Every structure is written in structure tokens, then in C-alpha cells.
Amino acid sequence: MKHVPSEKYNIAWFKLSECVARGEKERALGVYKLLSHSIDDAAFAAQLEGDLLLAFEDNTATEKYKAAAKLYTKKQRFVEAAAVYEHLVTLQPGIDDHVLHLIQLYQILNFTQKLEHHLKKTIDELVQDNNPTRLNAFLVKLQELSPETHKLAQTFIAG
Known about the structure:
- By secondary structure, this protein is mainly α.
- It is built from nine helices and no strands.
């Protein structure tokens, strides 16, 4: 973050939280815009904006989260990117692309247990939905992403 006098910086964060607590969306976004000038991490700034929008139940929050995750990934900050995709999977269950991004990040991070957990959970949901078109589309994308993970998915289906 850029060097900012700490008192002004702390006041801005306090004002931001105060606006959110009062439900003042426009004012909170205005304070965020001012505060964002002191944040030189675009991914964090996008994530923060997503958090603000989510606090006001604004559907555009997910777009900010996706932007943040892409920026974290681009900067090879894979743990932060995975955390944002975890959040997206919770916010938007049934969006297979979020799970695929998360699986890809877990492969990079070598987080085998988390990868297997999300893969099994998704496969179970897809099988229970009884939507073969969606299941096949997911498996095709998974094959493109990782033949090894695709094989693991097949064992979950057969399981």
C-alpha cells in the first residue's frame, strides 16, 4: 500500500465501516473510491469492492470477485485467488466455471485434499441433478484442464 498518514487512513476505514453499518451504499462507495487511491493492490481493491457490494446485496459483487481472482492469479498469488473462488462457489453454487478455476488453483498449490473435496462434491451434485448435458460439459472442461483430475472424477461417478 502507498504511504498514507495513518490517522487519515484509519479514519477512512472507520468511515467506510460506519457507512456499511448504517446501510448507506452510495456514501460507502464514495468513501471506498477515495480510500482505493491509497491501495496499490488492484486485486485487493477489487475484492474489497466486492465485499462492499455484497454487504449491500448488490449482484455485481460477484463480478468484482471474479476480477479480483483473475488479478490474484495473474500475479501468481494463488492462495488469495483460491480463497476468492471458494467464496464465489459459496455465493453462486452451481456455477461450474468457479469450481473449475478452484480445481486448477488447487492443482497448482498441490492442495490435493481440497481438490478432491470440491471435485467429489461437484460430481455428486451434477449426478443428483440428473442433467447429463451439464455433467458432460463439466467433464469435457475438466479433461481439457487436467486428464488426471478427469480420471479422478470418473472414479467418483463410478463410485
